[in-house]
Design brief:
heterodimer, A: alpha+beta, Dihydrolipoamide Transferase, Chloramphenicol Acetyltransferase, 7-stranded mixed beta sheet, 4-stranded antiparallel beta sheet, B: alpha/beta, Rossmann fold, 2 domains, 5-stranded mixed beta sheet, globular
Chain lengths: 388, 343
C-alpha cells in the first residue's frame, strides 16, 4: 500500500484557484478510479474532481470551504501497489529529459497545463538585462521585437535584431519627459479600456462663465462637474487590487496639460470643495508651473481621474488613455455649432455643443456605470448654475 | 633491440593513433630526460602493458622501464619517493579505477610535498579511464573529479593524437605531480594522418598545458567537453550543423585543473549559452565546477540556463547496450544543445 496525493487539477485555462465546496466521501471510505471525490467552486462554476486511483481516503488536507490553488495538495489516498507520486517521492518529478540525473523542480503531475515555477515567459536572462543596460534600451521597448525564446521569452539574439532594426532609423536623444510618458503609456495600456461618449450643449456654460471672475474655461467646469458627479457615484474611480476594491477619499482630479515634448497631469486637490473661481485660479497656477517645468515631482501623484481638453486642439472626438493608477479619464471635444430640434417652435435651432468622452478601466466598472456617470456630468455641464 | 626498433618508433609517419602518440611521447621523454623512468604492471616487453602503450620501450631502455607489483599504493609510494629524489617517474595504472588504491599516496603525499617541504614532486600518473563496451563498474570509470579536488595536483585529459603526444611530454617536463587522464576508446579510435614526411616529434606544441582550445567555431551555443567526450560532441556538432543549421562552438578543456575559464568566458561572450558534457557522473564533477565559475563570473553573458550532459547516476553497466545508453552519447548531447539553443 502506498499513499498518493490528490491535488487540485487544472480545471480550465484561466482557472488558477478554487474553493473546496464539499468532500463527496469521508476519511476511511474507499473510492474507484475516475469516481468523483470532491466538488470545487471556481469563479464561474462548480466542478467535480475525480480520483485517479482506486483506494481509500486516509486524510483530508483541505477541508470544505478552503481556498486552494492549482496543484495544491487536497488529500491523501492509500492505494494498492506503487503509483507515480507517493508521499516519499513527492519532490521528484520522474519526467525524463536530456539529463535524467538532475532532479527537476516539483510539478504536480495532475496540472500539466499550469506554467511551472521555471516558466520563462517574461523572464529576462542575465545577458538580455546586461544588453539592455549596454544599449540603453528599456524593458518597455521589448515590444518592438518578436520574441523567439521559450514561452515568448526575449532572447539575446532578439535584442541584436532590434538594435539592427533601430539602426535603419536616424537616432535622436528622447527627452526625459517623453521617456516618462512612453513608460507610463505602456503601463496604462496593460488594462482593458472602454469609452462612452455624449453630446453636451455648451451655450449655458458659455453664457455662465461671463458672470464668474476670470471667465473659467470649459476645463474648469468639467473638473467641477466630474468632482460633483463622482461624489454621488464613485464607481468609475475605484481601484481593484488583489482581493479588494479601493474607494477614493478625496476628489483629487488631474488635468492634462500640454508641455514641450509631452503631457503633464498635475493634480488639483479636493476639487469638490472649490468653487469655479477658486478652481480657475488653482488651475491657472498649475498650468503655469507645468509649462515652465516648475511642477514639483509629486504634483502628478494621487489623482483619481484626469480631464483632457483635446477640444483645444480642435479635435471633436478622441479616446485619451487614463494614466496608470487612475481608472477614468474625461475628454472634452471642440465646441461646434450643431442643429438641435426645438419642440416648442417645431424647427431646428443652432446650438453650440461638444462631444465629451469617458474612457475607463473596464475591470472596475461596466458600461452602465460609465453611462450613469457621464449623464450626471452632462447634466451638470448643461446646468452650470448647479456648479456654483 | 627486439620487436620494435628505435627508428620505427621515432619515425611513426603515416596514420598515428592516440595510443601510438602516447608511446612516442614516452619514448622521446626517455631519450630527453635521463631521470625519467616508467613504472607499471607488466609494462616490460614482451607484454608491453595492458594496452601496449609501452610496447618496445623496455627493449630500447631496459633499465628504465620496470614492472611493478599489483599494488597501486606501493607503486605510487615508490614514485613519490623517487620524484622527491630528482627522478621523473611515469606511472602506468592499468585502469584509472584502481587509482583509488593509491589515493593516499596521490592526494596526501604527491599533492602536498611541495607545499610541505619545498621539494618538487615531478611525477606523472597515466590513468586510462572512460568506458568501453562490457568493461563494467571497475574498468570504465572516470575518476578525474576526485583528483581535481586536491590542491597540488594538476589534472589533464587530452582528446587528440596531437595533444596526447605533446601534453604527455609537457606533463613529464612539469615539476608538479600531473594526473594524466587517458581515454581508452580514443586509444585505437582516435587517429591522425600526419603531414607527409613529418612525425609527431617534429611538430611543436600549440598551447601550454593549462590552456583550453576552441576546436570548432560557432555562435549558437558553447559546448565544453574533454577527453573522449570531445569526439562525441564534435559528432553532435556536425549533426546539428548539417541537419538543424545550428552552429555550436566546441571547447576542449584539455586541462581540468587548473581550469582555463577565460577561454570559456570569451566563447560565452559570443554565444550566451552553455552545455557542459563529461563522461563522468555529474555530482560534484568538473562540469559542476565550470558552471559554478560561469554563473559567478559570467552571469551577465548567459542567455539560457547552463545545462549538463553526464553519465547516468548508477554504477557503470556491464551489458554493452546498457553501457551505451548510460554514457553521454551524441544523441543525448544533440538534444541538450537543441533545448539550450531554443530556450
Amino acid at each position: 500500500m502506498t499513499k498518493t496525493a490528490i491535488r487540485l487539477p487544472q480545471l480550465g485555462e484561466a482557472v488558477a484557484e478554487a474553493t473546496i465546496q464539499e468532500w463527496l466521501i469521508a476519511v476511511g471510505d474507499s473510492i474507484e478510479a475516475d469516481a468523483d471525490i470532491a466538488e470545487v467552486e471556481t469563479e464561474k462554476s462548480v466542478l467535480a474532481i475525480t480520483s485517479q486511483h482506486t483506494g481509500v481516503l486516509v486524510e483530508i488536507v483541505k477541508e470544505a470551504g478552503s481556498a486552494c490553488e492549482v496543484g495544491d495538495l487536497l488529500a491523501w489516498l492509500e492505494v494498492e501497489g506503487i503509483v507515480e507520486e507517493t508521499e516519499q517521492s513527492e519532490e521528484i518529478d520522474t519526467h525524463q529529459t536530456s539529463d535524467p540525473t538532475e532532479p527537476k523542480p516539483m510539478r504536480a503531475p495532475t496540472a500539466p497545463a499550469l506554467a511551472p515555477a521555471g516558466s520563462s515567459a517574461g523572464f529576462l536572462s542575465p545577458r538580455v538585462r546586461s544588453m539592455l543596460a549596454e544599449t540603453g534600451l528599456r524593458e518597455a521597448d521589448l515590444h518592438l521585437v518578436r520574441a523567439t525564446g521559450t514561452d515568448g521569452r526575449v532572447t539575446a539574439r532578439d535584442i541584436e535584431r532590434l538594435q539592427a532594426h533601430l539602426d535603419t532609423y536616424i537616432a535622436h536623444d528622447a527627452s526625459s519627459l517623453r521617456r516618462a510618458v512612453s513608460d507610463s503609456m505602456s503601463r496604462a495600456w496593460e488594462r482593458p479600456l472602454a469609452t462612452v461618449s455624449s453630446l453636451v450643449q455648451m451655450d449655458p456654460i458659455l453664457k455662465h462663465r461671463r458672470s464668474i471672475p476670470g471667465r473659467p474655461s470649459a476645463s474648469i467646469y468639467a473638473l467641477r462637474a466630474l468632482a460633483l458627479a463622482l461624489r454621488e457615484d464613485d464607481r468609475l474611480v475605484r481601484i481593484i487590487a488583489g482581493d479588494h476594491i479601493y474607494e477614493p477619499k478625496h476628489m483629487d482630479i488631474a488635468l492634462a496639460v500640454d508641455a514641450e515634448d509631452g503631457v503633464l497631469n498635475p493634480v488639483i486637490h479636493k476639487v469638490d470643495t472649490q468653487g469655479l473661481a477658486e478652481l480657475d485660479e488653482s488651475v491657472n497656477n498649475v498650468i503655469e508651473q507645468a509649462r515652465s517645468r516648475k511642477l514639483s515631482p509629486d504634483a502628478g501623484e494621487g489623482g483619481i481621474a484626469t480631464i483632457s481638453n483635446y477640444g483645444s486642439l480642435r479635435i471633436t472626438w478622441a479616446t485619451p488613455v487614463p494614466p496608470p493608477g487612475q481608472s477614468c479619464l474625461l475628454g472634452l471635444g471642440s465646441v461646434r455649432r450643431h442643429p438641435n430640434w426645438n419642440a416648442k417652435t417645431n424647427s431646428w435651432d443652432c446650438v453650440r455643443a461638444c462631444e465629451i468622452t469617458m474612457t475607463f478601466d473596464h475591470r472596475i466598472a461596466d458600461g452602465a456605470a460609465a453611462a450613469h456617470l457621464l449623464h450626471a456630468v452632462v447634466k451638470y455641464l448643461e446646468h452650470p448654475e448647479r456648479l456654483d | 633491440m627486439a620487436g620494435v626498433t628505435a627508428e620505427q618508433l621515432a619515425a611513426s609517419v603515416g596514420t598515428t593513433t592516440y595510443l601510438d602518440a602516447l608511446r612516442q611521447a614516452m619514448f622521446d621523454a626517455l631519450a630527453q630526460w635521463p631521470e625519467a623512468f616508467i613504472y607499471g604492471q607488466d609494462v616490460e616487453d614482451p607484454f608491453g602493458g595492458a594496452f601496449k602503450a609501452t610496447k618496445g620501450l623496455s627493449t630500447a631502455y631496459p633499465e628504465r622501464v620496470r614492472n611493478a607489483p599489483i599494488c597501486e599504493d606501493a607503486m605510487a609510494g615508490l614514485a613519490v619517493g623517487a620524484a622527491i629524489y630528482g627522478a621523473r617517474p611515469i606511472l602506468e595504472f592499468q585502469f584509472s579505477d584502481f587509482a583509488s588504491i593509491a589515493f593516499n599516496q596521490l592526494v596526501n603525499h604527491a599533492a602536498t610535498t611541495f607545499y610541505r617541504t619545498g621539494k618538487p614532486c615531478p611525477l606523472v600518473v597515466r590513468l586510462p579511464m572512460g568506458g568501453t563496451a562490457g568493461g563494467g563498474p571497475f574498468h570504465c570509470q572516470s575518476p578525474e573529479a576526485w583528483l581535481t579536488y586536491h590542491p597540488g595536483l594538476i589534472v589533464v585529459a587530452p582528446s587528440s593524437v596531437f595533444d596526447a603526444y605533446h601534453m604527455l611530454k609537457q606533463s613529464i617536463a612539469c615539476d608538479d605531480p600531473v594526473m594524466f587522464c587517458e581515454n581508452k576508446l580514443l586509444y585505437f579510435h582516435e587517429k591522425e594522418v600526419s603531414e607527409a614526411g613529418k612525425s609527431l616529434n617534429e611538430s611543436t606544441p600549440q598551447l601550454p598545458l593549462g590552456k583550453a582550445a576552441v576546436v570548432r567555431e560557432g555562435d549558437a551555443c558553447t559546448v565544453v567537453a574533454y577527453s573522449g567526450m570531445v569526439k562525441e560532441v564534435m559528432e553532435a556538432a556536425e549533426r546539428l550543423s548539417t541537419r538543424n543549421g545550428i552552429l555550436v562552438e566546441v571547447i576542449d578543456l584539455r586541462c581540468l585543473k587548473p581550469l582555463d575559464m577565460q577561454t570559456i568566458y570569451d566563447s560565452l561572450a559570443r554565444t550566451g549559452r552553455l552545455v557542459m558534457v563529461n563522461e563522468a557522473w555529474s555530482y560534484g564533477g568538473v562540469g559542476a565546477q565550470v558552471i559554478s565559475q560561469v554563473t559567478q563570473h559570467a552571469f551577465h553573458l548567459l542567455d539560457a540556463p547552463p545545462r549538463r550532459v553526464s553519465a547516468l547516476e548508477t554504477p557503470i553497466p556491464y551489458h554493452p547496450e546498457l553501457w551505451r545508453s548510460h554514457r553521454p552519447h551524441a544523441r543525448r548531447i544533440v538534444q541538450a544543445i537543441i533545448e539550450t539553443v531554443q530556450y
